[in-house]
Design goal:
The complex is a heterodimer of chains A (518) and B (644). With 518 residues, chain A is mostly helical. Chain A has helices spanning 6-21, 29-53, 83-102, 111-130, 134-155, 160-193, 200-203, 210-227, 236-243, 246-271, 273-278, 280-299, 304-323, 328-359, 370-373, 375-388, 395-410, 412-418, 420-437, 454-472, 475-503, 508-517; strands at 62-70, 75-81. The two termini of chain A are 33 Å apart. Classes of the chains: A mainly alpha (518), B mainly alpha (644).
């Protein structure tokens, strides 16, 4: 298997599907949908071997592919994954299948273009996760914007143009700053070592003067923080989520937001470790504000999708808090929480989409008492809700617990403040659940609602399977990322100490000690 | 068998899955059998293990078994593992035993409910979670059970979800419990990290016990206080007791099992389990005992002025839980657990009896519309009477032994023990009073039934009365396992639990204070009899006396009847303010300020665009392109000028 360019295959296979879709006449709805489904399912099965072939005892990147592209500028087609990107790729291919399935009856106009965009988006997302060359990464990163912009702008709700434009410009503004920073870093490395390269693994070892590090880190961090989104850069998210079609919301929450957090782990932190460590108080406090603020604002939302969007702000706050704890529990919990959030928030958007398809409203006040007419739906909704409020035994608990433990270990106050989200999470989710599902039916239209069909039960069963499996036996996933995270932490700590020593020569001894410990 | 201790929680889990996945399609009889038998098998397993433990030497009575790795991250390693020792086996027997009886009773009680299979699914899930809680060998798995039972409580309180009061009560229970759980969670963090900095990374009970001495005194105090906050939530103590009375919205057998006999005692169990930590923090133990005794008295006083029979029982439960906390708080862990067990018998019996009354009266709960039920419901009546005698502490019944044991140990407690004793003693009299008020109003005196109801009054079917009878027998003889030395007994219960509380239990010198001990017993019996007599005079002999009393002290009565307005105060302080903050954050901060700035920036740009109209094409691509061009220009500038 080593000779096969497996990552390239996985990246471009959906694109092949998108290309083929172009040749199917647009009247043949069913053929278009089944082709898209076929490609997304095969793609999922193609990505599974990654999981099993990934050697969880080995350090560094695996399945590496490297071809020179513009050698004179040091630009390479350079791919590779570690334990972090591995899990996110699997999440992407998994959620894409569910997204294609849940769009089956939802999308009625421009069906062909819709699935072309979706498969195109999948290529861009996986490419972003595999790219180890900054130019390649940036290309994929920007490529993600286009199909997502279309998904919101063409197939979205009434305010879709506003939401799409806001999404596009906001993210774009961040990316441009990142691009600037990339070029500066590139030039800096050339000045230092005399070689042009965009290879991020080599750039990790660049010496970036500390004052410049702050600027470059800020540029990267801003771009990623918008994507995450961190408080106070979150206001594009509720609009984008509310207007996007169901599948768009699922993939946006499930994968696209993770690109921000992934960007921190892969680029912002290891490239500028000193700045990252110095930013710990700022980021942690913003993360905690995000957790609490997201929860409280979520509580007050009258619209289901907006409510879930703000709950994402809260959940992603946990991810950032754990990551910047810089210890095993925090970082691993943070990565796990990325997956959890994809599963459970993705699940929530799917669930809302299902009643939206039936009732064409997302207002909480238009529902009430659904449990009595849709008992099967009620069970799934309950389980996903519990996962979202991190009940022990579900996936959410494992992530949140480790994050809070890690944060507490790093600084007690962070853990104590962050943990208040545990209470608030229960408040807004259970209140929402009560208003939608419990009580007597107040609106006559709701009395005739049909319970879930087989396709919907299948989609939600997949979600529930992972909610329980990841909650009860998380070891399978942790094993894959243990070595990577360990290596990551050692690397950034060592680099941080190195930079600190350049400020103060006496600290050099501490690095030597740190090396000795390993 | 010891290899298979995980079977104890496993059976109800299987029952949960069968009824949960197939329940709708299965016939009712199968659902009932699956539901009841799964719990019965757990009981049999527990009994077998109990006898196996007895065969071992007292110090060797710990069986531990790790099943699989759960969360492993760096130094943090938690396994799914179980532990059987005298403490957990007592809990297993109570949970599965009483649980089984209540399952059987439910077959009759819930017979006509459309949610029959859903009910048994939840109930089995509850037993599963409760057994996880008591058999877990580490704090995190215990926390799984801890929150898991909270979930079941939520689901079962809101079982009749179409009723707003029921779904509100369920939500309230969950959220108030979560507030307590927050304390529990932070307690886990602090314990884990503090021990970790000493080089021991563990949450396993045995290892914690071995290394507890590494912790400083102040840290231990903080940790135990945090855990106690968790306990006040789950076990309904001041200040987090408010959810339990509302929990009575659930079906009555649920109140019996979850909100009286088992789940609410989890806090007591947890403190007993962590006795090695609590014993290192005497101040916190004092707080535990004090909160316990104050709760006991406070809740008992509210019980005076309630007419809803289930509400009276709910406040009585809060009050009795207070006694258990006094027990563990003064270091008499065995006495606390003893009372936990006897209380499980007689309080389950009281609730099931109340359920039987409701069953007979088409769901009536108001005791003002009862009276004279004795002749219609003979079995319910005599079993209820037994339970009342037991809870009042009449000699010969189980409650007498366990409650007196706690009061006696409180009396010996060096920190303000006498004060705690006196409050406890007064509360005992109050308990006897409100319980017999309930008994007399329900079963004796004038019939105040609605005419319509009167025609249908009937004793419950056998499937409901047999569990009542068994529980009545247990309420009598359940105390005989723990007759104190002072009365010539062997204190077997205490001895059995001793290895768990080795070296931390309060040591009392039995012979020295024999006279005092017996004297105090006599005193508490007298207090109880006075309570009963007053109730007799006020509610049976001269019922107009109580009416006159109410009229004379109307304000006081209203305050007590309205539970001292605590719900209203909490609602004003916490709920209203949270909503106020929420509205402010959403409308002002989020929508007006933050998003306002973002949009303002957009409009500003558009305005700029208006000036530079010739550049504006309206295509996003063009904007993007110009952004990139701009970026490259800036980079070029930086490269040339800024970086040397």
């Amino acid at each position: 298997m080593t000779g096969m360019p497996i990552l390239s295959i996985i990246i471009f296979f959906p694109l092949v599907g998108a290309f083929l879709l172009l040749f199917i006449p647009r009247q043949r709805d069913f053929a278009i949908k089944s082709t898209a489904l076929f490609f997304s399912v095969i793609e999922f099965f193609l990505s599974l071997p990654l999981f099993f072939l990934f050697d969880d005892t080995k350090k560094g990147m695996q399945f590496v592919e490297k071809r020179s592209w513009f050698p004179e500028w040091g630009i390479n087609y350079f791919l590779g994954i570690d334990g972090i990107s591995l899990l996110l790729i699997l999440l992407t291919t998994f959620l894409t299948v569910l997204c294609v399935l849940c769009s089956w009856n939802d999308i009625k106009i421009k069906v062909k273009e819709y699935y072309v965009s979706f498969l195109f988006l999948e290529t861009a997302m996986i490419g972003t996760l595999c790219a180890l060359d900054l130019v390649l990464f940036y290309i994929f990163w920007e490529l993600m914007l286009v199909p997502m912009y279309l998904l919101i702008g063409v197939w979205g709700g009434p305010r879709r143009i506003y939401a799409a434009l806001k999404f596009f410009l906001y993210t774009m503004a961040g990316s441009v700053l990142m691009l600037l920073a990339i070029f500066v870093l590139y030039y800096l490395y050339f000045k230092e070592k005399g070689v042009f390269t965009f290879n991020v693994l080599e750039l990790y070892h660049a010496h970036v003067p500390i004052s410049l590090q702050y600027i470059l880190f800020s540029a990267f961090a801003l771009s990623f923080a918008i994507k995450v989104p961190m408080f106070p850069f979150h206001t594009w998210l509720p609009d984008a989520h509310t207007e996007a079609p169901t599948a768009g919301s699922v993939i946006l929450a499930g994968v696209l937001l993770k690109m921000g957090t992934y960007g921190f782990l892969r680029f912002a932190i290891p490239l500028f470790p000193k700045a990252a460590f110095d930013a710990v108080p700022l980021i942690s406090i913003l993360a905690i504000i995000g957790i609490i603020y997201g929860a409280i604002v979520s509580m007050m939302q009258p619209d289901l999708k907006r409510l879930i969007a703000f709950s994402s702000v809260s959940h992603l706050g946990y991810v950032m808090l754990g990551m910047f704890a810089f210890n095993m529990q925090g970082v691993e919990g943070s990565i796990y929480q990325m997956l959890n959030h994809g599963i459970s928030t993705g699940g929530l958007f799917l669930l809302v989409g299902m009643i939206y398809e039936r009732r064409h409203t997302r207002m909480i006040s238009d529902f009430g008492g659904l449990s009595s007419v849709m008992p099967v739906y009620a069970i799934f909704f309950m389980i996903v809700t519990l996962s979202s409020i991190a009940l022990p035994g579900t996936n959410g608990f494992v992530g949140e617990f480790l994050i809070l433990l890690g944060a507490f270990k790093a600084k007690k106050l962070y853990g104590i403040l962050g943990a208040t989200g545990v209470i608030l999470g229960a408040v807004y989710m259970l209140w929402m659940f009560q208003r939608v599902m419990f009580g007597v039916i107040k609106h006559e239209e709701n009395r005739q609602l049909k319970d879930l069909c087989g396709r919907e039960v299948f989609i939600l069963s997949c979600i529930v399977f992972f909610i329980v499996f990841m909650g009860v036996y998380p070891k399978v996933f942790f094993k894959k990322m243990d070595v990577t995270v360990h290596e990551f932490l050692n690397f950034v700590k060592e680099r941080n100490a190195y930079y600190a020593s350049t400020e103060d020569p006496q600290k050099l001894s501490s690095i030597i000690k740190l090396r000795g410990e390993r | 068998m010891s290899e298979y201790i995980w079977l104890i929680p496993c059976f109800p889990a299987v029952g949960f899955l069968i009824n949960g996945l197939l329940g709708k399609k299965l016939p009712k009889a199968v659902v009932s059998w699956v539901g009841c038998l799964s719990v019965f098998f757990s009981f049999v397993c527990s009994a077998v293990l109990f006898f196996e433990l007895l065969r071992l030497a007292p110090e060797a009575r710990i069986i531990e078994k790790d099943v699989f790795d759960w969360i492993v991250s760096g130094e943090f390693v938690t396994r799914v593992g179980f532990r059987i020792d005298p403490l957990s086996i007592v809990m297993c027997l109570v949970v599965s035993g009483v649980g089984f009886l209540i399952h059987v009773y439910s077959v009759g009680y819930m017979h006509d409910d459309p949610g029959y299979s859903r009910y048994f699914t939840y109930l089995n899930l509850f037993v599963f979670m409760m057994l996880i809680l008591v058999t877990a060998n580490n704090l995190l798995l215990m926390f799984v059970g801890w929150e898991g039972v909270g979930l079941c409580s939520y689901l079962l309180i809101g079982f009749w979800f179409e009723k707003d009061s029921a779904s509100n009560a369920g939500k309230k229970a969950f959220i108030v419990n979560r507030i307590g759980d927050y304390g529990f969670l932070v307690g886990i963090f602090l314990l884990f990290v503090s021990l970790g900095t000493k080089g021991v990374w563990t949450l396993n009970f045995s290892e914690l016990e071995r290394n507890a001495n590494l912790l400083s005194e102040s840290l231990t105090a903080l940790i135990t206080l945090l855990f106690f906050i968790g306990a006040t939530g789950k076990s309904a103590q001041i200040p987090l007791y408010v959810w339990l009375p509302d929990a009575m919205e659930g079906p009555t057998p649920v109140s019996a099992l979850i909100h009286a006999a088992t789940m609410v005692t989890a806090g007591v169990y947890m403190i007993a389990r962590l006795n090695f930590l609590y014993s290192m923090a005497p101040e916190i133990m004092f707080i535990v005992a004090l909160v316990g005794v104050l709760t006991a008295m406070f809740a008992a006083s509210i019980g005076f002025a309630q007419y809803d029979i289930k509400r009276v029982l709910a406040y009585s439960t809060i009050s009795q839980l207070g006694y258990m906390f006094v027990g563990v708080g003064v270091g008499a862990y065995a006495a606390g657990i003893f009372h936990l067990m006897t209380h499980a018998f007689f309080k389950a019996l009281l609730f099931l009896g109340a359920g039987s009354v409701m069953h007979a009266l088409a769901g009536e709960l108001d005791m003002r519309k009862m009276g004279g039920l004795k002749k219609y419901l003979p079995t319910t009546h005599w079993t209820f009477l037994v339970a009342c005698l037991a809870i009042a502490g009449i000699p010969g019944l189980s409650g007498f032994f366990s409650k007196d044991e706690i009061l006696w140990k409180a009396f010996l407690f060096p920190h303000a023990g006498v004060l705690i004793y006196i409050i406890g003693l007064v509360t005992a009299g109050m308990t006897a009073f409100y319980m017999f008020r309930l008994l007399f109003n329900t079963f004796y005196g004038k019939e105040r039934l609605d005419e319509e109801v009167k025609h249908h009054v009937h004793e419950s079917p056998k499937v409901m009365t047999i569990p009542l009878i068994i529980l009545a027998i247990l309420s009598i003889v359940g105390g005989y396992v723990g007759i104190p030395h002072a009365l010539g007994g062997g204190a077997h219960f205490e001895k059995f639990l001793e290895p768990v509380f080795r070296g931390v239990s309060q040591k009392a010198d039995y012979h020295h204070s024999l006279v005092v001990e017996i004297g105090l017993m006599v005193l508490s019996v007298i207090v109880a009899l006075i309570g009963i007599y007053v109730a007799y005079v006020y509610f049976l002999k001269k019922p107009d006396l109580s009416e006159k009393f109410v009229k004379k002290h109307e304000k006081l009565y209203k305050t007590v009847h309205n539970k001292y307005f605590v719900d209203e105060i909490y609602g004003f302080l916490f709920v209203d303010n949270l909503l106020r903050v929420g509205r402010f954050l959403k409308n002002v901060i989020d929508e007006a300020i933050i998003d306002g700035i973002v949009n303002g920036l957009g409009y500003f740009m558009r305005g700029l665009g208006g000036i530079l109209r010739f550049l504006q094409s309206g295509y996003v691509q063009a904007y993007a392109f110009s952004m990139i061009v701009g970026a490259i220009v800036v980079v070029g500038y930086l490269l040339v000028k800024v970086i040397p």
